[in-house]
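hiii, so i know i said id send this last week but things got crazy w the move. better late than never?? heres the sequnce for the chain we talked about at the cafe, plus the structure i predicted for it. fair warning i was half asleep when i ran it
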Amino acid sequence: MSMKIIIFAGGVGTRLWPLSRKNSPKQFEKILGDKSTLQLAVERLRPDFEFSDIHIATGKRYEKIIREQLPQIPADNFIFEPSVRDVGPAVGMAVSIIGKGHPNTPVAILWSDHFVKKERRFREVLHFAEDLVKKNNNSLILIGQRARFANQNLGWIEFGEETAEIRGTKIFKFKKLIYRPTLEQAESFLNQNFAWNPGYFVTTPKFLLSQFEKFTPDLYRGIVKIKDDKSLNRIYPTLEKISFDNAILEKIDPKYVSVIAADLGWSDVGAWEALKEALEKASTENVTKGKVLMTDATDNLVFNYTDQLVVGIDLGKMIVINTDDVLLICHKNSVPKIKKLVEKLENTPHEHLT
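okay and structure toks below
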């Protein structure tokens, strides 16, 4: 039985505001080239994985745009969440639905808003994780990206000693997760057994649901009752809001978890400075889109989505995003503040811009 893939395409993507908004989140926008990151996430799985084995989980409000962007995915492979309940319930519910017919078939959890340069290597690592889970149904394989710099905006995976090797790719023991470390911590991680955490993992529905039952019994009882759209719409909005890390990964016995730490050319393009790092050939380079003219400027990202010309002089380490109704200007180090600013727009005259 071929591995099943679930690509999660929920979330608003506030850190890519003002391009990403509630009604048009980042995963549906053509940030990289002429295809959305969701479309790219499906494409990079081909030809190793059939469309019939790829499932998409997202919010009900995005049903129309999802079906338009992915007509090749079978209609029954879309899972539409009726409300926002965080990643824990989203993963549990999707895995429970797929697991009803395939309890011991490996399933990979992936995300729609990422950039992966080394697509063949990515598919190879997915197959390695699949093989490990087939050998041991009661296991979970985390896929980490070898760190390129001290990134504060990501989660990190700490791994231990090597336990196996598959065609040159090493498998390690899992130690723990660290979410958004300080700059000092992140810098120290670069020379230790740490990798970035893309949130990718492979396991079996039966094993993962056993961990939900053990650590979040109320949530477990809810998700296993979901059998059709009617029960989904009734039960899902009542489920506890909890992240997957808090629900499972921070509590799971490390003996069940292994880590593959590889260079996938992976980037989280969920924030502007991360998008620049993914696209740049050198850190001093200016990354631009649209009508932009730069003079004596280094290490900037300037994206212009209007017909107006944007000119930058003597700029360094700046983010400039120009849309029809919002102009964002901030330092690269200030990107984490964007989310808080957008939250403050709620219940103000500018709420429509969120």
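btw Residues 278-335 form one domain. thought thatd interest u
miss u guys!!
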